Amino acid sequence: MQNFEHTLDKPKGNEQQPAESLTPAISDLRSMRILIVDDLPTNTILLRAILQHGGFTNIISTNDGSKALDYLEKHTVNGRCNIDLVLLDIIMPNTNGFSVCRKMQRQSSWKSIPVILITSENKWRDETTRASFDNGATDILFKPVRNTELLPRVTSALSQKWERDLHREYEEKLKSSLDNYQKTEEKLKYIINHDELTGLYSMRRLVQKLSSILHPTQNNSSTYSLLYLDIDNFKVINDAEGHKAGNRFLKEFADFLYLHFNNEVIVARLSGDKFAVVFHDEQPISSIDKAEKCLTACSEFIFYGEKNYYPITVSLGLLDIQLNCQKQPAEIIEQAKQYCAKSKQIGKNKLTSDMDMEPIEEKLPD
Hints:
This protein is α/β, with parallel strands linked by helices. It has two domains: 5-175, 3-Layer(aba) Sandwich (Rossmann fold); 203-356, 2-Layer Sandwich (Alpha-Beta Plaits), CATH 3.30.70. Helix content is 45%, strand content 18%. It has eleven helices and 14 strands. The strands form four sheets. It has a five-stranded parallel beta sheet, with helices on both faces. The chain has a five-stranded mixed beta sheet with strand order 9-10-8-13-14, with helices on both faces. The protein has a two-stranded antiparallel sheet with strand order 3-4. It is rod-shaped, with a radius of gyration of 38 Å. The protein starts with 25 loop residues before the first helix and ends in a 14-residue tail after the last strand.
């Protein structure tokens, strides 16, 4: 048998192929798994001997096309088959080589595996070659098989498979990186738009929503109101129970507030013990009803600390939002805050709205 070692480039000395190289080292190719499928043992022995003489050691074989498909199935895990090349006889009993090729092409885990078909020399050589490629073969060899033909074609087919695997691995890593980027982006958006402690919307998200309400892109006849909430005497809980208990109270109150207003446009925590709710009103009077119901519900909320329990009240400021007005969201929030401050001044556990505030009259010069 002719020595084929000189046709396979070996690394010189201790030189190693860079990990990121797009060209496989010959040692990589020689370790790849080859499946021989032939019903005649003498043919299998010959092919195995040629491959082993060329340095290929990871060789398995079977004598039937159906068994070859079983081998492929057995060696497929999580959508990946670790068989890298199939040397396949065309004429076999039961399942012939063309049938195996077609079935491999229909299976996503196998269609990237190169197949070299092997058959006897015959007068229909051109037709056989055309049929082989039509059925999905990578290459075709005619018997008698010689090492000078087989080894270069095996090397070429395995190189293609190695490059395909590298490309697929790169695509998977890229997809994973994109997925991680999207998840990170979504997480950042959530962090920006939500309060870290309570999970309610943040001041930033409230400003965005108010901006879209104040300056709608389409004609909008809906009416909106902003309810500003300030918890009365929150400092008492913080001082008596500690900062940790204070945070627990804020979380519990935020959950209560969210459930109470779960059908509203937005529920947000502004800072400390201050919250805001944007109402969507079909009838202007409904905002007062909702605010009064909130005042009553909050007065029934009780926080249980480790040392004591604490009935809760809130001071509220309710502001009807005028669409297409010249005010900015920060001005709207500040005005609702002033209404809330008046509720605290007149005794807490109160609601102050537009109807309760006296208009500011400009003094005319004498």
